[in-house]
Amino acid sequence: MASGNSTNDRGNEVLVKENLNVRTLILNRPRQLNALSFQMVSQLLELFLAYEKDSTVSLLIMKGEGRAFCAGGDVATLVRDVAKGHWRLGAKFFWTEFILNYVIATYTKPQVSILNGIVMGGGAGVSIHGRFRVATENSVFAMPETSLGLFPDVGASYFLSRLPGFFGEYVGLTGARLDGAEMLACGLATHFVPAMRLPLLEDALSKVNTSDPAVVSAIIDEFSQEPALKDKSAYHRLDIIDWCFSRRSVEEILSALEGEAAKGTDDWISTTIQSLKKASPTSLKNSLRLFREGRLQGVGRCLIQEYRVCCHVLRKEISKDFFEGCRAILLDKDRNPKWEPSQLELISDNMVERYFSKVDDEEWEDLKFPARSNLPVHAMAKL
Amino acid sequence: MASPSSSSIDQVSWRASVLSRHLQQSTDNSFQSLQSSVCLQYSPPELSEKFEFDVREMRRLLDDHNFEDRDWLMGLMMQSNLFSPRNSGGKVFVSPDYNQSMEQQREVTMKRIEYLLDRGVFKGWLTDRTLEGEMRKLTLMDVVTVFDHSLSVKIGVHFFLWGGAIQFFGTKRHHDKWLKDTEDYKVKGCFAMTELGHGSNVRGIETITTYDSNTGEFVINTPCESAQKYWIGGAANHATHTIVFSQLYINGSNQGVHAFIAQIRDLDGNICPNIRIADCGHKIGLNGVDNGRIWFDNVRIPRENLLNSVADVSPDGQYLSEIKDPDQRFAAFLAPLTSGRVNIAGGSICSSKISLAIAIRYSLTRRAFSVSASRPEVLLLDYPSHQRRLLPLLAKTYAMVFAVNYLTKVYVTRTPKTNKSLHIVSSAFKAMFTWHNMRTLQECREACGGQGLKTENRVGNLKGEFDVQTTFEGDNNVLMQQVSKALLAEYISAQKRKKPFEGLGLEHMNGPSPVILAQLTSSVLRSTKFQMDIFCLRERDLLKRFADDVSQHQAQGESKAHAVLLSFQLAEDLARAYSERMVLQTFFESETCHSEGPLKNVLGLLKTMYVMICLEEDASFLRYGYLSIENAAAVRKEVMKLCSELRPHALSLVSSFGIPDAFLSPIAFNWVEANSWSSVHH
Q1: Percent of chain B having pLDDT more than 70?
Q2: pLDDT of residue B25
Q3: What's residue B466's pLDDT?
Q4: Using the beta-carbon criterion (under 8 Å), do B44 and A246 form an inter-chain contact?
Q5: Rounded to whole angstroms, what are the CA distances from B104 to A128, B108, B149, B373?
Q6: Contact criterion met (CB below 8 Å) for B448 and B667
């Protein structure tokens, strides 16, 4: 049985706690807010595959060490790796991470993720696809990739596009932060449990000896609360969000928002417009198209498409925004990225189309998943 | 649980366990847990079927253009509660709620239109006349049809008939006044052409309009009950304005049929004075469209409301027209109906795609009967007979998709020179494809068995929803006669002028008649040359026979018009031969621009299946000897072979239609769970 402190020198990045039929996976890089390294995603993938075959395991719990659940993929390391060598180093990270996301999305045993802190990017990828997501008053969810010159990946084009109305477009394009109550309201979380009750919840879950989701759900229900949405919650703005974010293009979304803004001063609208204007135009266009396609596809197909776009991003042939975003936000920290192209209007459909095409490289291939038994219908890759 | 590939020992023990379970049923307490391992389990076809070609690439080939617009509009509909999302078997499906009353269906259809309007779906539909704008509009119409035919018909009447009439019959003053307001739904238009007494024969309508030069107004009247406007979509509840088709009398002389704009409701929805409106009532389908009847009692409209692109009346009451020939004037009037036929041809194929996707997915998960007692039951689509029922229809649908793409291109790039051939092709395709759709729907309904009868499963219900397509915008039989008549006219004039055929796709008749080999082997049957030759041979021979038959009748003293009527059997055969040859040609063209590979191989199979099934179904091949009896038998054998060759691709082929799961139905997915007790709302 694989466990956290065995095979490799950075092995402590994922800790495993064993309890009869339950395995608790603890993301353990607290100083980096548990950002996922390549070793971590590889190890998680191994563990997930092993536990699926292991008939003594009936339930997985995932949580983070410290104040974050997981702040995303370890992008800083990734960018350094790519800068040093070939884009393939980066592609390998995404490949493994996306396979992990797929395995989680199609997992036959229930996974309970305890989201007591920051859940961003890659952190959403290892939790939201699972069966149960427990939010707390400390939860902070965001997919901030468009401000980094990337796009919401890890299967976000699947799970964000399935949120009510056009809330997913809003969350994914603006990078807006959601708290635990909002996560529950929109369906990103399945339960809300106050943080102080988490030890009791974990204790109760550690005694589970079945994979029946109804049983697991009933246990979490016992500790759950219905939190009130804060007055200023974006979720109260669903009407405006639907009105604006259902538009055909990013340009039209912006002009719809500006139309609303013209009706009167409103902090929420101006903040929303500001986030869109600060984000990489290329990222916005790629993201919107991924959401729109993703809404009609299975999770597998979504990940395959995201992987294609990722590889194009890493190859820097169409735009270098991801590297510029990482420079400005993560490395130099001047928070002033110079996007290129700098405006939405300068990005042709043809440019976006290139991101969605196969990579022109003999060694490159589309993301390929391990065969899964018992694929749930919703996970089926279509089109 | 045993799979079909298990050894026979396994199967025997599996069978034994099934039997013992039945016997123990009443006594065994653990029955619950045992039951789940023995009962039929749904297995998604994706797990067992192979994907040998790139489904996305095929989808792009079929959809051809505006992919992102398609995805956007599908998403718009799926994300709104107005489109009646329902959860079944763990999936969400959107389709109209047919449990609603007719009035409710009409209101929700109008609300859906307002929702789409607010989201900018109709932006540019009448004001953007670029090629891109036209393509986008046709694409979005197509997508709306996937959700609901009522919705697309109601939108179609407003934009393509009312809006189209203003565009094509009107001049600048009408365009400036009406097009933008129409696009924004500030006015809601309808199109009053058909009357109780006259449908296809528009020239016979009885509504009368005169001109009053004292006031500068036209006066419209419904002189008798048979002149009431009938089936007018939008008239019963929502329309504020209508195009009125009417005979125009100037100084007592009839100038023929003209089109006018009349207001029928005020902005509050009250019916205007001198207008009477009644409902057409509940229909066999399309109840989301408010079809109504209109009577005009001395309705006065300003002189400017005559749509005057081909003829005008001066303020003092003089009739003015560039086109002196009333026949030509009339032809100019009917031009907008072409766009309707393009939409209908496309819409009918949408419906065929949906029903085939559902029926084929179901047939890949539903089993019936075992070949022998110890074997598991057989998947429906593994029965050769089931393949023969569905796969030829699938091949035809593919062929027609390519034909619709061709028709769309011809339509958006039309010029005065191509109008005639556009008219003929669109008539032929409209008739052939809507008939094909009705047949496909019935076959798919039966192939789904009892499940096909449930409204939620769409297939059966679509029969009622789409039946109207064989009648509106030109009765199919009348259209097919027009096709033959046009071909005949072309034939006669080419002979008179002693010039080769040009246009209409008859160029193949300029060369020598193709020769068909006496013995048709499988490889000959699959060759492009043979396939084109046999279709061309049939078409040219039928055209000659039709011409001969007509002139024989004429020689016996019949008028030309009557002679054509007497030759209706040949006319029907000819129109069909023409359409099928045109479709095949578009298939060839789509296929040739593709590079070698698994996708092209499958296209080849589909194309051959299309040809073979046409050869098998049209008796004229045997009747007139284009195929010998032996060769007809060889064709039949080939159909069977092709069925088994297409069978492995069935799932990929319907997946390539690109219809999102939400627009299919519960039996296309986990129908066991969708029907489980736990999904019943107690």
Answers
A1: 94
A2: 42
A3: 98
A4: no
A5: 39, 6, 16, 52
A6: yes
Would you state the pLDDT for residue A11?
Answer: 60
CB B333 within 8 A of CB B434: no
Per-residue pLDDT, B19 = 47
Q: Where are the alpha helices (DSSP H) in B556-628?
A: 560-566, 568-592, 598-617, 620-623
Interface test with B, best of A296, A305, A369 (most B CBs within 10 A): A296
Residue A33 within any structural domain of the chain: yes
Q: Cα separation of B629 and B613, whole Å?
A: 16
Do B89 and A377 make contact, defined as CB atoms within 8 angstroms?
A: yes
Choosing among B37, B41, B43, B56, which should be mutated to test the A contact, i.e. which has the most A CBs within 10 A?
A: B56
Instruction: List the CATH number of the domain containing A224.
Output: 3.90.226.10
Range of the domain at A320: 6-355
**Do B670 and A381 make contact, defined as CB atoms within 8 angstroms?**
no
Please tell me which residue of chain B has the smallest CA distance to A378. B91
Please state the rounded mean pLDDT for residues A23-52. Answer: 97
Based on the residue annotation, tell me whether A145 is a catalytic residue of this protein.
Answer: yes
Where are any strands of DSSP class E within B251-310? Answer: 253-263, 275-279, 291-296, 299-302
Q: Is it true that the peptide bond before B315 is cis, omega within 30 degrees of 0?
A: no
Cβ of A382 within 8 Å of Cβ of B655? The answer is yes
Contact residues, chain A to chain B, C-beta under 8 Å: 161, 164-166, 242-243, 246-248, 252, 289, 292-293, 295-296, 349, 375-378, 380-383
Closest by CA to A279, choosing from A351, A344, A345, A188, is: A344
Report how far residue B88's alpha carbon sits from residue B668's, in angstroms, rounded to the nearest whole number: 11
- Is A364 a domain residue? no
For residues B398 and B440, the answer to whether their CB atoms sit within 8 Å is: no
CA B662 and chain centroid, separation: 21
Q: What strands lie across the sheet with A132-135, from one edge to the other?
A: A14-19, A22-27, A59-64, A111-115, A132-135, A191-192
Dist. CA A171–CA A119, nearest whole Å = 13
Higher pLDDT, B144 or B24: B144
Give the chain B residue whose CA is nearest to the CA of A358.
B57
Is A122 noted as a catalytic residue in this protein? yes
User: Any idea what DSSP says for residue A106?
Assistant: T
Domain assignment present for residue A20? The answer is: yes
Q: What share of chain B is helix, strand, coil (3-state, %, to 5)?
A: 60, 10, 30
Both tokens assigned to B94: 């959107």
What ranges make up the beta strands (E) of A152-203?
A: 178-179, 191-192
pLDDT tens track for B63-77 = 999 999 999 999 999
Nearest to A296 among B74, B91, B120 (CB): B74
Does A179 participate in catalysis according to the annotation?
no
The catalytic residue among A13, A65, A97, A145 is A145
User: How many domains does chain A divide into?
Assistant: 1
What is the β-pairing status of strands A111-115 and A132-135? Answer: parallel
Mean pLDDT computed over A351-369:
94
Give me the pLDDT at residue B38, please: 56
Q: Does residue B5 register a pLDDT over 70?
A: no
Q: In which element (H, E) is residue A114 found?
A: strand A111-115
Among B297-301, B420-424, B456-460, B620-624, the least confident range: B420-424
Nearest Cα of chain B lies from the Cα of A9 at a distance, in angstroms, of 39
* In the predicted structure, residue B91 carries a pLDDT above the cut 50: yes
- Does the structure show a pLDDT above 60 at A55? yes
Q: Which of A13, A52, A74, A153 is catalytic?
A: A153
Q: Which two tokens stand for residue B407?
A: 């028709």
CA-wise closest residue to B188 among B197, B178, B198? B178
Model-level pTM greater than 0.90? yes
In a domain, A93, yes or no: yes
A238-268 pLDDT per residue, tens: 999 999 999 999 999 999 999 999 998 789 9
